[in-house]
Write a structure and sequence with these properties.
The protein is an alpha/beta fold. The chain has a single domain, classed as Dipeptide transport protein (Rossmann fold, 3-Layer(aba) Sandwich), CATH 3.40.50.10780. Helices cover 26% and strands 28% of the residues. The protein has a seven-stranded mixed β-sheet with strand order 4-3-2-5-8-9-10, with helices on both faces. The chain has a four-stranded antiparallel β-sheet with strand order 7-6-12-13. Strands 1-11 form a two-stranded antiparallel sheet. Helix 2 runs parallel beside helix 5. The radius of gyration is 17 Å and the shape is globular. The protein starts with a strand and ends with a helix.
Length: 269
């Protein structure tokens, strides 16, 4: 699936970090996302951001934009995010990567595996409540593959993906050259074997710097156009796909659209 190398500035460069929560260090289940440990989940997300930002500047980045990309996009406390980076929060209608222009690299931080991935923590594909699965040009896909495709449409390579072992393995099936950093090993949709959080932060910082130093060797994802996205929707009232009791629906409602841009298909559906 890899394509031609994207243009990479030789000196001053900008990095774009898109951050989800489910794959962050220390996050093990729904309690961290919307339950009793929600505030802890937000703190863990901000700490992963800071580790990644530190790695960017250690590798010579001159500008870093970090997007709070989980749910509504308003999760972390801006006061605790490294002030060297520009933080973007809240909705950005019709734009997946606001202020991506001029970036030399994208990092997908704290990502999760696609819906129904065995043993993966909080696995889903954009909506655990309404989407059973997605397909891009006939291939099953989650947020990792789609977001790699959107970055490529802007001619910016994804150089690093962090998340549980299942998420980073998925990333490498789409782009073998991509850097990865596992934050934990999923043992189920609501459980994981964790790397100690402080060690995970060190790993993220080191993996970020290493990926950026080799960014010229990492290609953009290549897909065929016009692109086709298919969504398999769950009936109203279904369990979430990362609920341990969830069972796949035999005949989900299917919607398929074809167009010139994966970003337009995703944000316009």
């Amino acid at each position: 699936m890899a394509g031609l190398l994207c243009a990479v500035p030789a000196q001053a460069y900008k990095v774009y970090i898109f951050t989800d929560m489910e794959g962050c260090s220390g996050v093990t289940g729904g309690e961290h996302i919307s339950g009793a440990l929600k505030e802890d989940g937000k703190r863990l997300m901000a700490e992963d951001m800071n580790a990644c930002i530190a790695g960017c500047f250690a590798a010579g980045a001159t500008a870093v934009v970090v997007r709070d990309g989980h749910s509504s996009g308003s999760n972390v406390n801006a006061r605790v995010v490294d002030a060297r980076a520009k933080l973007i929060q809240g909705p950005t209608p019709k734009v997946r990567y606001k202020e991506l222009d001029g970036a030399a690299a994208v990092i997908l931080l704290g990502y999760h595996a696609k819906a129904l991935t065995p043993q993966a923590v909080l696995a889903h594909s954009y909506s655990s409540a309404s989407i059973q699965g997605m397909w891009l040009n006939g291939r099953e896909v989650g947020e990792i593959g789609v977001d790699m495709a959107i970055a490529a449409e802007h001619k910016v390579p994804v150089v690093l993906v962090t998340g549980d072992e299942q998420a980073v393995a998925e990333a490498q099936t789409w782009l073998p050259e991509v850097g990865v950093c596992a934050t934990k090993r999923g043992t189920g949709p609501q459980s994981a074997e964790l790397i100690p959080v402080e060690q995970s932060h060190r790993n993220i910082q080191e993996a970020t710097a290493a990926a950026l130093r080799r960014r010229a060797a990492i290609p953009c994802l290549k897909i065929s156009y016009p692109a086709t996205l298919r969504w398999d929707y769950l009936p109203a009232g279904s369990l979430r796909t990362h609920n341990p009791d969830f069972r796949p629906v035999a005949n989900p409602r299917r919607v398929e659209k074809t167009g010139p841009s994966v970003e337009q298909l995703l944000l316009g559906h």
